[in-house]
Write a structure and sequence with these properties.
alpha+beta; Fructose-1,6-Bisphosphatase, Chain A, domain 1; 2 domains; 5-stranded mixed sheet; 7 helices; 14 strands; 32% helix
């Protein structure tokens, strides 16, 4: 497990550096997104990644499931980089990624579950909340995971049974623990919404009924970061319908290892099935889960 954690950390760091470098090249420099290499600094990107030139006629953004579900050149480049690094370090392992896919069936042994940029809309618009997520699963269960908050240069990590931690740019790690909140009415809750209009209507109904029952609601726009925020005590709970494994594989482990009560979708599920993901501080878990049940919110949303 230590080896898997080491690989996850190294791969996520190199991928985050690539994302940080590419954002100003694709969308222009924006304060608050980390410091790209200074002019004249050698480019240490892997030779397997060939980014499109900034003078290319290739468009930097295309779409996937809907016109509001974007993918950027940085997403596809970064996943290629991650896969190349994993092939070099762990050539016999399978990989499941958001952009290039992988087998839906859960393999025996190790599978890497990766999201090159979680929070692509934020990345495009210049909202400094997007992340690289890398997790190692064994027989469908996450055993090591790293999430890098690219703009803030904060790294979150965990191993199964080994606790959760966060580190800033200096690399000094601090142990993560959930908050001690013990009443749902005092809970700060993070959530997110899907791209399909019909599902959004259902999600809107749930959040409208939840909002008067909790402290407040936050919509960050990157599920991996939401889960890490539960671990770090920046929010008290997170729930969201329709996440895929690459959204929760690392962040869910980090939240659980920080003491959160978690409910994850099946490891072979996908966003279109609408399963709920929940991570909540232990002192309010029973009450919050009962509240979700009262709102009929723990069933899958089509």
């Amino acid at each position: 497990m230590d080896e898997l954690a080491t690989v996850a950390h190294a791969v996520a760091q190199e991928a985050a550096a690539h994302v940080r470098r590419r954002r100003p090249e694709l969308f222009g420099a924006t304060p608050g997104h980390g410091e790209p290499p200074a002019s004249g600094t050698p480019d240490t990107r892997s030779s397997t990644v060939r980014p499109v030139s900034t003078t290319s006629t290739v468009q930097p953004v295309s779409t996937k499931s809907t016109e509001t579900d974007p993918v950027t050149l940085a997403d596809t480049e970064t996943e290629r980089l991650i896969r190349s690094l994993l092939r070099r370090a762990r050539p016999d392992d399978e990989v499941l990624g958001e952009e290039d896919g992988g087998s839906r069936a859960v393999p025996s042994g190790v599978r890497w579950v990766v999201d090159p940029i979680d929070g692509t809309v934020n990345f495009m618009y210049g909202v400094p909340a997007y992340a690289v997520s890398v997790a190692a699963q064994v027989d469908g269960r996450s055993v090591a995971g790293v999430v890098v908050d690219v703009a803030r240069d904060v790294t979150y990590g965990a191993t199964l049974g080994g606790g959760a931690w966060a580190a800033d740019a200096t690399g000094v790690r601090r142990t993560l623990r959930c908050t001690s909140v013990d009443r749902a009415e005092l809970a700060l809750v993070a959530t997110g919404f899907g791209y399909d209009a019909a599902r959004r209507r259902q999600q809107g109904r749930i959040v409208a009924e939840l909002l008067p029952r909790v402290r407040d609601v936050r919509r960050i726009g990157a599920a991996a970061l939401d889960l890490c925020m539960v671990a770090a005590g920046a929010v008290d709970a997170h729930y969201e319908h329709g996440l895929s494994p690459w959204d929760w594989a690392a962040g869910g482990l980090i939240a659980a290892e920080a003491g959160a009560v978690v409910q994850m979708p099946p490891p072979d599920s996908r966003a279109d099935e609408g399963h709920i993901t929940v991570a909540v501080a232990p002192g309010v878990a029973d009450e919050f889960l009962a509240l979700l049940d009262e709102l009929d919110a723990r069933r899958p949303l089509a």
